[in-house]
Amino acid sequence: MPTARESNSYLYINAMTYQYLHKADIHTAEYRTFLEAYHGEGSYESWRRRMEWYWQLGDESYRVLAAKRGTEFVGQSCAYRVKVCINQNIHEFWWSIDTFVLGTMRGKGIGKKLQAQLHQDVPNFSSAWYSPANGAIKRKCGGHGILTFPYAYYPVSCYCSILLELALKKVISSKITLPHLRLPHFYSTLNAWRHGLDKTYTISEISQDAIPSLSPLMDEFLKYEPFYVIRSEEYLRWKYIDNPDLRCRALTISKGNAIVGVVVFSHASDNLFVASTVRTVKIYESLFRKDSGLTHRHLLLAVADYLKQHHIKVDGIQSLQAIKYRPALAYPFSGTELLSTLKVEKLPSGYITLIDQDMEH
Question: CA dist 327 to 40, 45, 192, 252, 259, Å?
Answer without folding.
Answer: 37, 40, 13, 26, 30
